[in-house]
Amino acid sequence: MTFEKLLCEARKVHCKEMRVSNDDYFEVVVAKADLGAMGAILQEYFGQPYKAGGVQPSPEAKRYAAVHGGIYTGQTMYFKQESGAKAFAYFWPWTGGTPITVKIIRQEAPAQQ
Description:
By secondary structure, the chain is an alpha+beta fold. The chain has one domain. The protein is built from three helices and five strands. Strands 1-2-5-4-3 form a five-stranded antiparallel beta sheet, with helices on one face. A hairpin with a 5-residue loop joins strand 4 and strand 5. The relative contact order is 0.21.
């Protein structure tokens, strides 16, 4: 699966709120009931979570996530690196855990000088 196909499939999942949708950044709010569909799509692209929800983040996970708002114990993080580009996805549960913010991000490698 390509990153473009990942975004295409993620856009099909029912969401409560669409925040951002472009070629490198996708952010929506989904209901907990729709999280399974989103998780299946993310696992097809990323594999298992890099940092599962309920697990303390490693120093490396914290470093990768810092530019995206950080990563905390209750949040889930996916990560993949291909050809210098990095892809991330996050599940950020709201207080109470019912709505969840989902972020999917691609960071291209800096151009060589």
